[in-house]
Please model this.
Amino acid sequence: MKRALVTGGAGFIGSHLANSLILKGYEVIVLDNESTGFKENVPVNAQYIKGDVLNLQDLSGAFAGPVDLVLHIAGQASTIRSFRDPHDDLKTNVIGTLNVLKKCLEKRVPRFLFASSMTCYGHPAQIPIPEDEQSRPISYYGITKHAAERYVLSTALRNDLDFDFHATAFRMFNVYGERQSLQNPYQGVMAIFISNVFNNEPITIHSDGEQSRDFIYIEDVVDAWISAIDNPRTYGEVFNLGTGKGVSINQLVDKILLSDGKGRSNYPVRYSHERPGDQRHMRADVSKAKELFDWSPRISLEEGMGRTIRWARDQWQKHKT
Model:
C-alpha cells in the first residue's frame, strides 16, 4: 500500500484531500499544528501527528516510515496576517516548505504536490489569467507563496539528485465548501459572509464590492489534485485551479442574503476601505489543466454554494445548542 503525507491535513483543503486519498487506497499520514485546522476534520483511518512544519523533529515523525507522496498544504494563508506579521508568514510558507523538501530528499520521496495561490499574479495584465502570466505579487503572502512554489519546482529540476523527484504546483483561486472555517475572519470570504448572516452580524465589504473573484468548489479542487498524482504530463508544471468565471463581491453577498430570505433592504451591508494586497479582478484560465490532464471544474457556483450553506447551517445549529 502506498503511503501519502498530507501537511495541513486537519484544515479545510487538506482534510478533503486526506479523505480522498484514503478512498483511493493510500495509507495516509496527517501533520497539522491546528493553528487553523481541527482534529475532528482528520479522517479516522489516517495516522495523525499534531506537529509543525517548522519543527524538524515533528517532520521526522511524519516521515518515520516510507513515504511515496507528499501533499504540502500547510501554510499561513491570510493576506492580512502576512502584513501584520511578515516574519511568521515568511517562516511558515518558505522555511516550512524548505523543511518539508529537506525531508523529501532525505527519504527519496518521488512525488510532491504543492498548494500555491492566485496571489502569485498580483495585478494581472490579462483576464482570464493563464499560467504564463508574469508573477508580480503585491502582498507579502503572495511573495512567500511564489517563493515557496519556485523552491519546490526548482528542487525537482536539480541535476544532482540520484532519484526521480516530480513536483506539481496548483495556483488555487477562491476555494470554498464544507469544512471551511466559520470562525476565521481572515480567510474564506464566502464563509465569512455566511457566518455573518447566521450570527446576524453586519456584512462588511472592503472597497466598492465590484472587485471580482473566481470561486471554485472544494470537490473540484480535490479532483484536480488526485487526478494529477500519477499523470507524468503534470510533472514540473504549474496549474490554475478555478472555474474561469468571475463573480463580484456584491453579487456574492446578494446570493448569500437571498439564500436566507434576506436582502439589502432589511440586512446591514457596510463598505470599508480597500485592504493592502487586495487584487481587483481575478479569473483563472484553466485550459492548461484540461489539455494536460483532462481536468475541468464541474460544480456550478449555485450548486456548490447551496451545499456549503446547508453544511454551515448545520454547524451553526450544533454550536448554538
